[in-house]
TrEMBL record:
Species whose genome carries this gene: Amblyomma variegatum (Tropical bont tick)
A family per Pfam: Orn_Arg_deC_N
Summary of subunit composition and partner proteins: Homodimer. Only the dimer is catalytically active, as the active sites are constructed of residues from both monomers.
Annotated InterPro entries: Ala_racemase/Decarboxylase_C, De-COase2_C, De-COase2_CS, De-COase2_N, De-COase2_pyr-phos_BS, Orn/DAP/Arg_de-COase, Orn_de-COase, PLP-binding_barrel
Involved pathway(s): Amine and polyamine biosynthesis; putrescine biosynthesis via L-ornithine pathway; putrescine from L-ornithine: step 1/1
Keywords of the record: Lyase, Polyamine biosynthesis, Pyridoxal phosphate
One GO-annotated biological process of the protein: putrescine biosynthetic process from arginine, via ornithine
Any one Gene Ontology molecular-function term assigned to this protein's record: ornithine decarboxylase activity
Cellular component terms per the entry's GO annotation: cytoplasm
EC top class named in words: lyase
Similarity comment: family membership: Belongs to the Orn/Lys/Arg decarboxylase class-II family.
The reaction(s) this protein catalyses: L-ornithine + H(+) = putrescine + CO2
Protein name: ornithine decarboxylase
Amino acid sequence: MRTCEVVDPLDGNVSMVHSITSNPDNDQPFFVVDVGDIVYKVKLWKLKIPRVEPFYAVKCNGDPAVLELLAGLGLGFDCASKAEIDTVRAVGVASNRIIYANPCKTRSYIKHAAAVGVDLMTFDNELELHKVRGLYPAARLVLRLRVDDTGSVCRLGVKFGCELADAQHLLSVARSLGLNVVGVSFHVGSNSREPQTFARAIEDARQVFDQGLAMGFPMTLLDIGGGYPGDRGFQKLFDQIAHTINSSLAEHFPEESGVRIISEPGRFFVSSAFTLYTTVIAKRENSGRPMYYLNDGVYGSFNCTVFD
């Protein structure tokens, strides 16, 4: 969305849409957002997974109106780039409410994070540790694990995360460089459909916590990533995931452990709140096959269909 207009929900979305589409000069696609749906999702999260602090994944929808709303509701933010960090800070979010959750950062972005005080960031390789050591040695580092993501629609393990067997080596390197590893993170893949992947990932994270403690890293943070369904009809699956997470945390990271639990939900909060309105701008036949052309596409609002 490039502009945002707030209307009385009692008037309904239909009248607003009609007023926009009745103007012949207004032929651009647009979204309508149900703000109440986002608020409901935040309340539901706090009810179902009360121990887990959500850090909204800005990459999912970085509209300033969404960010302002979620910031006002007390959420933290998962940023993956300099631009996302700046966008979040521009709506008044303090740097200590941001995790720079990108294990492979450019040198200039690390410098920028240091300049604005975003000190919590992820890593999954040795080169990243050397970059951080030279540019931001005071950073609080979170080791990202590669976990089973076979139950997700969009698998992220091919890009990010170190193998469980390699975690101890990376901790050793961090120790030798004098860096501060404060926790572990993982991501079970976008739009996960298998609750037990969270249980297995939390169990793996416990192993790394124990390794870290033995090496002089008394870790205090567990980031259980994203992957939570939020589309219409999500409730049953989300309830199953929430139950699995709560049970696994109670077993491996009980409240008395003092470990802070955060997460990186994105779609969960916004996917069902947004409705895209498009227009058919042309039509023709191709070898007897009807073809319709919209004013939006895979290089715009439908880009997720390529990967999902």
